[in-house]
Amino acid sequence: MPYILLIKLIAAHFLSDFFFQPKSWVDDRNNQHYASLRLYLHGGVTFLTIILLCGPSLWLIALIIGMGHIAIDGGKSYLSQNTGWFLADQIAHLLIISISWIIYSGITVDFQSIMQSLNDREGWLVFTGMVVLTFPSGKLIEFITEKWRNELDQQGNNGKTLAKAGMWIGILERLIVFVLILAGKYEVIGLLLTAKTLLRFNETNRPEAKTEYLLIGTLISMVFAISVGIGVLKLM
Question: Torsion angle, CA of 151/156/162/164, rounded to 10 degrees?
């Protein structure tokens, strides 16, 4: 099966990138860029890992992917080392792997099927629901809870502490609840809400007003996620 080859190539990539590449190699690459010998050593390790997992007959694919590692990682060394560029780096590696696999396997792309899948009603409903539950819902919840947040600021409790962390926690929380609703796992939502409520009230070093504010935000967030989830289910 050609898909076994793709899985092996992806496994080889993650092994060479995260298991067989010491931090000292990464640091040397970030300092020396394309002049780093360890950068080329990493490309060689990637080549050998693919050969070991997939066999010597795939030497050309292994060479292309290994050279891709050198080119991409060398270019990345000039950029900021942050989450965005890390994800872009991994996507670029996986794109090279996928293209090499498609060419080697002789797989043809059925554009008609792709276009039909893009017009799938249920898929678009789920996608739209997830989009709504990210930043749009977060902004609306921010407006709704503004009154209580201002009261906390006046009391010196600083309701804006770790605002970015709270935003991402809320987004992940809503998406998890949304997926659980689509899967019909309502009991898990109850357990999640109970666990979070207990966690909030067990934090004895936190002012009571701030705990209540966080619980209000959590409950509003849950209501949004449940409402959108049920709405999508009704429309599907």
Answer: 40
| pTM reported for the whole predicted model | 0.64
The total domain count for the chain is 2
Whether the CB-CB separation of 62 and 47 falls below 8 Å is answered with yes
- Report the C-alpha gap between 46 and 61 in whole angstroms: 11
User: What is the arithmetic mean of pLDDT over 139-147?
Assistant: 83
Q: What's the confidence (pLDDT) of residue 148? A: 74
**Residue 218, CB half-sphere, CA atoms under 13 Å: how many?**
19
The pLDDT score that the predictor gives to residue 35 is 95
129 CA to centre of own chain:
18
Instruction: Note down the domain range covering 136.
Output: 118-235
Is residue 110 in some structural domain? no
Confidence of residue 14 (pLDDT cuts 50, 70, 90): very high
pLDDT above 90 covers a percentage of the chain that reads: 48
Nearest CA to 73 among 41, 104, 101, 51? 41
Q: What angle do CA 198, 199, 202 make, to 5 degrees?
A: 80
Tell me the average pLDDT of the chain: 84
User: Is there a single domain that holds both residue 127 and residue 228?
Assistant: yes
d(Cα 223, Cα 217) in Å, to the nearest integer?
Answer: 10
In a domain, 196, yes or no: yes
Contact 13, 97 (CB under 8 A): yes
Structure tokens at 160: 């804006």
pLDDT at 37 over 90: yes
Residue 111 lies in a domain: no
Q: Are residues 74 and 132 in the same domain?
A: no
Closest CA to 46 of 64, 21, 66, 26: 66
